[in-house]
Amino acid sequence: PPTLRGVARRPSSSRMSISIVPFIGLISFGVQYVYPLTESAGVLLKEKTANKDLTQWVVFWIICIGFAILENNFLFFLADCVPLYLELKTLAFLWLVHPDYLGALWLWHKRLKVPHAEYDKAFYPLLLQCLGPLGKAPAVEAAPKSDEGTSKDDEEAAESAPPGSPIPIAGAAAWRGAAAS
User: Fold this and answer.
1) CB 142 within 8 A of CB 93
2) What is the DSSP secondary-structure string of 46-115?
3) Which residue of 24, 38, 59, 106 shows the fewest CB atoms closer than 10 Å?
4) Nearest CA to 152 among 131, 173, 168, 137?
5) How far, in Å, are 35, 38, 39 from residue 94 at the CA level?
């Protein structure tokens, strides 16, 4: 190795951060990507998903991807220079995903929701406008008439519906009963 005034120096590429946990890189990868991926998939595959679960994992993935971009492009030197960097990173991500803490959900409700609301109010209509026909709710199509025609209940339901309501004529009485319950 090259020497400077007789002192041997290691090349900068062989620097190694101080770590006290064995296999901390693997543990960090599991906490940051593997566990959240399995939990997110479980939430998405559920028949009925709680709003808090969706919020937790959407906010987590936004934070995770943002941090990964920031770390790979600007903070890459921290892993080599800051002692216990991977342990600290693992603890931070563990707090974000742990089921007892749900840190991403806490961040959303306590820190991010209020500032986001003003941007949402200002830019959401513009986003829907930019999406054009994709930004509109789908119209409800009328159900095909049966061979017997419409029942008296269906006709009464259609007459009692407000003008322009998307209640289909055939089966409207059943819809009204379902909406009342």
Assistant:
1) no
2) SSS--HHHHHHHHHHHHHHHHHHHHHHHTSTTHHHHSTTHHHHHHHHHHHHH-TTT-HHHHHIIIIIHHH
3) 38
4) 173
5) 10, 14, 13
With tokens 């020497």, the residue in question is 3
- Give residues with Cβ within 8 angstroms of 87, minimum separation 6: 19, 20, 21, 24
pTM: 0.65
Give the Cα separation of 110 and 112 in Å (integer): 6
How do residues 40-84 score in pLDDT, each as one tens digit?
Answer: 999 999 999 999 999 999 999 999 999 999 999 999 888 888 999
- Give the tokens for residue 167: 């209640």
Q: Tell me the pLDDT tens digit for each residue of 142-166.
A: 555 555 544 454 455 445 444 444 4
On the CB side of 77, how many CA atoms lie within 13 Å of its CA? 2
